[in-house]
Design a protein that fits this description.
By secondary structure, the chain is an alpha/beta fold. It folds into three domains: 3-75, Winged helix-like DNA-binding domain superfamily/Winged helix DNA-binding domain (Arc Repressor Mutant, subunit A, Orthogonal Bundle), CATH 1.10.10.10; 90-113 and 362-464, Aspartate Aminotransferase, domain 1 (Alpha-Beta Complex), CATH 3.90.1150.10; 131-358, 3-Layer(aba) Sandwich (Aspartate Aminotransferase, domain 2), CATH 3.40.640.10. It has helices at 3-16, 29-36, 40-52, 90-98, 118-128, 144-154, 171-183, 199-206, 224-234, 255-268, 329-337, 345-357, 360-385, 409-417, 449-464, and strands at residues 56-59, 63-66, 80-82, 104-105, 166-169, 189-194, 210-215, 238-241, 271-275, 304-309, 321-324, 391-392, 400-404, 421-422, 424-425, 438-442. β1 (56-59) and β2 form a beta hairpin. It starts with a helix and ends with a helix.
């Protein structure tokens, strides 16, 4: 391949990924010479190729521009820029359906009761009621013994925290919300890999932030060169990311990608808000380190927050989450004080008592084995029932299955609901519509004939359903 063909391919990738938008001016021939360190002849020949392919057009006295209706010329997942985000009632829709006893709960990422240590947790509540001061306001930062326990547990994931580095929150969603609020102002831009947890869109809308949606790509997870170009160009204030087993598609970023991304965040002074909800639910031999553990901390460095909770492993209703930060906890504590005096002390004590008296590691190990086994069963049934028409990603942890159908999964959902099956259509997990033929299933269901029949029905319906 010649130099100008390589240059044309590189620029084409930039246009396809959304780095240059419809009708936007691209660098001039002289500018691209400096940017790509090439000759004027190479630049001119590369632009000629792009013009012939209908990707760009020259305007006299103005330069080169991306053509209008460019999406007709390109395919694949693209970066999208949103000046405003208008979130609908996505979470409410999922929760309403998952609470419907007539529907199998494939939709929400919530484990069935059998997977939760409820009897042991009840014992923890009984002990909590005997605490002398359980009826009083607790510390705003959270119950000290629980924070100390979480700090000790943090060492196993490669990012050691102290009790003073931890703030208890009302679930992981609040952790993400106040962390983001602490490092942004209305009108700021943030970077958000997608598909992602639906609750983030409500947070972004409430905080009046602009959004760059960058897609996870199947082969690499997150394209680092693409990410770097976006960060350099748009200067986002923060990134929200799940580096370990992203919900909904289960992506696990490689160690190299985490290190390269950490380098970008530090050099560009971009705050990190990391959701590590699923990090403990790895299916392999070792727990992957969180992205934040690859950051170096200094007074001049950007804020970095690790957010998590016990909602997916102990019980969703207890609403015990936390934020861990070595350099910015005072900022989020100040925001937390504006909304509450303290947390629910008896619940914090109950969780601490459970962690103190029972083997949380043994419980997690049981979950990992079951969810990994369920995935293999789910995948086999779906692919056989759909005659191979469903493409299913292969996660390495968590408890969700992410698949790609041949048609709009919102329309597919209408058909499956008639069979008593609810799942989460891909459109829920992005601001743009590029996930509309994808879907997510909850793997944390007890295996039974009813589940098997539902998966077979889902596969068969997806095979015959057309756009």
């Amino acid at each position: 391949m010649t130099k100008y063909e390589n240059l044309a391919k590189s620029l084409k990738n930039d246009i396809q990924s959304g780095l240059y938008k419809e009708s936007e001016r691209i660098p001039s021939l002289r500018e691209i010479q400096d940017l790509k360190d090439c000759s004027l002849t190479t630049a001119r020949e590369a632009y000629r190729i792009l013009e012939e392919e209908g990707l760009i057009e020259a305007k006299p006295q103005s330069g080169y521009f991306v053509r209008r209706n460019i999406e007709e010329k390109i395919s694949g997942l693209q970066n999208r820029i949103f000046e405003t985000v208008s979130a609908d009632d996505r979470i409410q829709m999922i929760m309403r359906d998952v609470m419907n006893p007539k529907l199998l709960p494939f939709g929400a990422a919530i484990p069935e009761d059998k997977f939760l240590p409820l009897s042991q947790l009840i014992g923890g509540f009984k002990t909590a009621l005997l605490y002398k001061d359980m009826h009083k306001y607790g510390d705003l930062e959270g119950f000290a013994a629980l924070r100390e326990k979480i700090a000790r547990m943090s060492g196993r994931n490669g990012f050691q925290l102290s009790m003073e580095n931890i703030l208890i929150t009302n679930g992981c969603t609040e952790s993400l919300s106040i962390s983001l609020q602490s490092c942004t102002n209305p009108g700021d831009t943030i970077l958000l890999p997608s598909p992602t947890y639906v609750g983030i869109f409500q947070i972004v809308e409430t905080l009046k932030l602009k959004l760059i949606e960058i897609p996870y790509r199947k082969e690499v997870g997150l394209d680092i060169s693409e990410t770097k170009r976006l960060c350099t160009r748009y200067r986002p204030k923060a990134i929200i990311i799940t580096a370990n087993f992203n919900n909904p598609n289960g992506v696990l970023l490689s160690d190299n990608t985490k290190q390269e991304l950490a380098n970008i965040l530090q050099s560009e002074k971009i705050a990190l808000i990391e959701d590590d909800m699923y990090g403990d639910l790895y299916w392999g031999k070792t727990r992957p380190r969180p992205l934040i553990s690859y950051m170096s901390f200094s007074k001049a460095g950007p804020p970095a927050f690790l957010c998590s909770s016990f909602s997916k492993t102990i019980a969703p209703g207890i609403r015990i989450g936390w934020i861990g930060s070595r350099n910015s906890l005072k900022t989020v504590s100040k925001i937390a004080r504006a909304f509450k005096i303290s947390h629910n002390l008896p619940t914090q004590i109950a969780v601490f008592e459970y962690l103190k008296k029972h083997s949380y590691d043994r419980h997690l190990n049981s979950l990992r084995k079951t969810f990994a086994s369920n995935f293999q069963i789910w995948k086999k049934i779906l692919q056989e029932a759909s005659n191979g028409s469903l493409e299913i990603d292969n996660p390495e942890g968590g408890f969700v299955l992410w698949g790609k159908a041949k048609s709009d999964t919102q329309k597919l959902l209408i058909e499956t609901q008639k069979k008593g099956i609810i799942f989460a259509p891909g459109i829920l997990f992005g601001v743009s519509d590029q996930w509309k033929i994808f879907f997510r299933l909850n793997l944390a269901l007890v295996w039974r004939k009813e589940v098997e029949r539902a998966l077979e029905d889902l596969g068969k319906i997806s095979m015959r359903k057309k756009n």
